[in-house]
Batch of 2 targets.
Target 1
Amino acid sequence: MKKETLLTHSGRDPFNHSGAVNVPISQTSTILFPSAEEYHNAEKGKSCYPAAQKSGVSDPSYGTSGTPTNFALQDALCALEQGDYCALTSSGLSAITHALSAFLSAGDHLLMVDTAYGPTRRFCHNDLKKYGVEITYYDPHIGKDIASLIQKNTKVIFMESPGSLTFEVQDVPAIVAVAKKHNIVTMIDNSWATPLFFQPLSLGVDISIQAVTKYINGHSDVLMGAIITKGTSASNIIAKEIRYRGACNSAFDCYLALRGLRSLAARMNAHQANTKKVVDWIENIPQVKEIMYPAHKKSPDYALWKKQFTGAASLFSVVLDKKYSQKTLYKFMDSLKFFGIGASWGGYESLVLDFDPKPVRSATQWTEDNSCVRFYIGLESPEDLIIDLEKAFKVLK
Ligand SMILES: *Cc1c(COP(=O)(O)O)cnc(C)c1O
């Protein structure tokens, strides 16, 4: 099945729900069993309920392990990422922190990409360090040379491609090849591309992480994360970690995320087309020195992106022609009518924020002094967005 068909037909079972097209919302804490024996069987991973049994959760005896609504979303995400198991968490960030915690103990060493999502870095130096995990940040362009950073105690290599804020693309197959040789677990934050445009598990990555909050839900009304694993060993470790830590989601949020998921392909194609129009226009703006977007032909990572991805998302950044005062930048952003000002992305509305990569880089150096702005292109008409931007760029003249 092609991905568009998977999006439409996976995670659904109408004739098990009296014919309802969508999976009903099974909102519960306690799960009742027909007998005491059935309850204890479920605790041991053998549920009398087919949806729970199929989900692969380690202990489907209680609501924290999920209900048929959760299982349906897990099922659909597994199918899309070509994984064996999917765990849901309360946010994208919590998916990252649970995945790292599951595989790292005191004395272990973690290789973390320098361009990781800011809160991922914060978790590393704030929490993992405190628990005795050693961390080395590495250049996103390191490729096969990551071999030189591997230690006897290296347990996990974490990737994010393209990276947050500056969008460097990693050579995922090269890193995976090195990791496999040393028996190191690989994880990737795949939120930007979604499983629609990048398939890390099919390239040998062990764990793919999604901020469901972003494109998958797509409507800025749910916070959720997903950890999708390949292979029974990684799947069992994640399933247990999630159960033991009490990470869980409401069936209602899973229902909303499933509803969002159905239109993912249509939305991503529109996001991609709109972004191409905006990027092609922005390229000719004298106040823009550089566009950080791997699908842009002039990007140094264009070839790497083209080789690994089947499409591009709608989040990119620009380096402006000089360092503007904070006041001028505020005026620039505030004058945009259709670009919201706020964190996150992945919804239908466009967003804008200025940023400085310097404080969140250590393995590489951000030497650019000019102002940087990140744009998220929504589902508005790109023509309207361009008129809006044209007006705002006048502020920088
Ligand atoms: C937003 C984001 C996350 C975290 O998702 P939340 O659900 O907001 O916690 C993780 N990774 C990347 C790349 C993100 O942009």
Target 2
Amino acid sequence: MTRADQDSKPLPPGQRLVEKWPVLDLGDRPVVPLQDWNLRIDGAVSTPIDLDWRGFQALPECSVTADVHCVTSWSLLGSVWTGVSTATLAEQVSPSPKARFVLIKSHDGYTTNMPVERFLAPDSLLASARNGEAIPAEHGGPVRVVLPSLYFWKSAKWVRRLFFSETDEPGYWERRGYSNDADPWKEQRYG
Ligand SMILES: Nc1nc2c(c(=O)[nH]1)N[C@H]1C(S)=C(S)[C@@H](COP(=O)(O)O)O[C@H]1N2
Ligand SMILES: [Mo]
């Protein structure tokens, strides 16, 4: 995306552009070798699964051009994210109609939560690459969640488990005062 394109694009309220992608997390940056990589998808689903790297790679690939909006006010525009859509992943397990929320768990102990509809938004994916390059370890590689319709704290790095649930359970930042809803266009930052 050119600078001119970025400047003419409307940003959510209170956001400013960054050129370089900042690194933000709790500080513990797990290194997950591909041979150990595993994703558990379970909870209120018909067929829980464990995917290894080969199984993940075998799923249909998707690419999405999407922006990042961090609650600390930086926005990164126009990245091309490649990976497996959340819809494709959900198809593998057939969530129960009673499953209304998704709780995401990561290797560093981080957790975050959202309604199933938000998790399954058409631009949502588990990404293994950005702009054609593997997601670096400090940004949550080999695989991180990317949910462009929500503030970036909902996009868990180093994802290890997707848990479909009948009940909502606040995640790490949601328990510490961040908004449960997190829509940047409605400026749902805190509370
Ligand atoms: N596993 C994990 N995921 C996480 C976090 C974290 O601490 N651990 N921090 C969140 C927050 S607050 C932000 S702003 C983004 C930052 O992602 P980045 O470091 O790739 O920019 O990751 C989100 N996902
Ligand atoms: Mo954040």
